[in-house]
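Pilot study result, target chain (86 residues):
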Amino acid sequence: MDGAMSAFPFQFFKKSEQILKDVNRCMKKGGWLSVIEWQPEFLEYGPVRKNRVQPAALREKIEKAGFKFYIRHDLSDMAYMMIFSK
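Predicted structure:
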């Protein structure tokens, strides 16, 4: 697989560490992973704050699965995106 993108997944994953390791295993060297998540301070809608992934925790979790951080971009007041490479 050359790349993967997922929007707002971590509020649903029970075993996110294993899922990320599986994505890494299936991805070609040089592949990319893009994840969009809720901004922690945006509370108008979406999951409650305790179910949101803090940006630093998301980065740590994905790096632990073997990906390298590339960039974080705030898409809006509601969401941010992080891109990683293998």
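One observation from the pilot: The longest strand covers residues 32-38. A full batch analysis is planned for the follow-on phase.
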